[in-house]
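Cross-posted from the bioinformatics board.
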Amino acid sequence: MADQPSTARALNRKELTRAILEQGRAQLAAVGPGELSLRAVARDLGMASSAVYRYFPSRDHLITALLIECYDESGAAVEAADDGVPKQRYRKRWLAMSGALRAWAKQNFFEYALLYGSPVPGYAAPQDTIGPAQRVPFRLLGLMADVEAAGITMAPHQSRLSRAARSSFAPIGEIVPGIGDERMVGALTAWATLLGAITLELFGHLEQGVLDHDAHFSAMMDRIADDLGLP
Amino acid sequence: MADQPSTARALNRKELTRAILEQGRAQLAAVGPGELSLRAVARDLGMASSAVYRYFPSRDHLITALLIECYDESGAAVEAADDGVPKQRYRKRWLAMSGALRAWAKQNFFEYALLYGSPVPGYAAPQDTIGPAQRVPFRLLGLMADVEAAGITMAPHQSRLSRAARSSFAPIGEIVPGIGDERMVGALTAWATLLGAITLELFGHLEQGVLDHDAHFSAMMDRIADDLGLP
DNA sequence: GAAAAGCAAGAGCACTGCTCTCGTTTCTGG
DNA sequence: CCAGAAACGAGAGCAGTGCTCTTGCTTTTC
C-alpha cells in the first residue's frame, strides 16, 4: 500500500479499482444500498460482471469500501465546518457541525442511509470502518474538551449520574481526555439527538407534523447547545 | 372490511392472509427486511409462490402490512408502559415509555430497523401507515399535555425560539392542544434523542465507546427528563 | 344448473450474487 | 531473452429473486 505502483498492471489495477468504486458510488446515490448491483456497475463500466470480482471479492466488500468513503466524506464535511469557526465560538461551532452533517445527509440521502440506517443484511462492519466512523463523534468530543478546558461550567442537572453510567464511557475518556462525566453524557446525548433528528427528518417521520424542517432543526440544536452550556 | 366473512372462501382468504403475514413476520425477524423473500414465505407455507400474489399484490404490500403491524405493536408496548404508571408520576412515565420502546426494539431488531431504519428501496410508505406510526409520538405528546395542564413550568432556556420554528409545528398543536411552544420543541427533541439513542445502540455505533448500554441509556433519558422539567 | 369469479400451480422472464473455466496478457526470475 | 507463473477479462452456468401469464379447478352467484 505504501509503495507506489511500479508496474503498468498494478497502476491499471489501482485505476480500475477507483473506477469501480466511483461507479458504485454513483449507483449508490441513485438507487440506495441493498439495490446496489454489482452487475450494473460492471455493465456501466463495459466489463464482464465476473471481472469485477478480481477487484472486490464480494458485493459486501464493495459496500464496505463505500462505507469507509462516506464516513470519511461526512467526517471531512463536519471537520471543515468546525474549522471554519473561531475556536472560542463554541456554540457556533456546534451549530456549524450539526448543520454540516445534516446538509451532507440531505445531499447524500442513500449514503446517509448506508451509514446510519439499517445495517445491511447479515454483515457486521469490519474493523476498517470504525476509524472513519469515529471522525464525527470525535470532533464533537473535541469541542467538549475545548469547552471544558476553557473552564466553562454546565448548568447543574437534577438527576445524579449513576456509577455504572460514569464508568461506562471510560474507553472514550482515554481517547479524548479532559471531559467531565456530566458533559460527557451531555455530548453523547447531543450526538444521539443529532442523528435522531436527521434520521427522523430524512426518513419521513416528521412529514405529518413539522412544516419548516430548517427552523425545527435549528430550534432543536439551539436547545442542545443550551443544555450543553455552550456560550 | 366491516362485515364478517360469510362465505367459506372469504373465511379461508382471511385465514390465509393471516398465515402469510405471520410467516412473513417470522421471516422478517430472522433475516431482516430487504432479505424478506416472498418465495421463501410461500415455500414455508407449502404453496406456490404465485399463489401468494392473490393475497398481496407485491412484496412491498406485504412489507407495508408488516410495517403497520410493527408500528402497532411497538405503539401498544409504549402505551402499556405508560398506563402502568400513575398519571402524575410524569418522570417515571417518560422513563417507562422510553425504556419500553428500547426494550421492544432490542427484542425485535429487524422490526425496529424496518420502522426506523433506512426506508425500503424506492417505495414511499402509504397513508395507511401514518396512523399507527404516530402512536408513539402522540403518547409522548400526551405526557407533555398532562404536564402542561398540571401547571408545571420548564426551566427557561437561553435561546429564543424563532417565529418559523414556533409556527412550524402548528399541525401537531391542532391534534394535541395545550402544549407550549418551548415544551413542544422539547418534546420533539426528546423524541429525536430517544430514536437516535436506540438507533445508535442497536446499529452498533456505540460499540467502541460505551460499555454499559443500560446505564448509558438511563443516564440520557434522565437528562432528557431534566431538560423537560419533569418532576 | 350454468355463468362468473376466485383460486392454486406451473412455466417462464429478467434480474441478482457468485463460481468456474478458458484463453490471453503481463510480470518475474533465471 | 525467454520460459514459467501470476494476474486478468470474458463467458457460461448455478441457484436464487420478484413478478406475470396461462391453465385447469373450485366456489360462489344468478
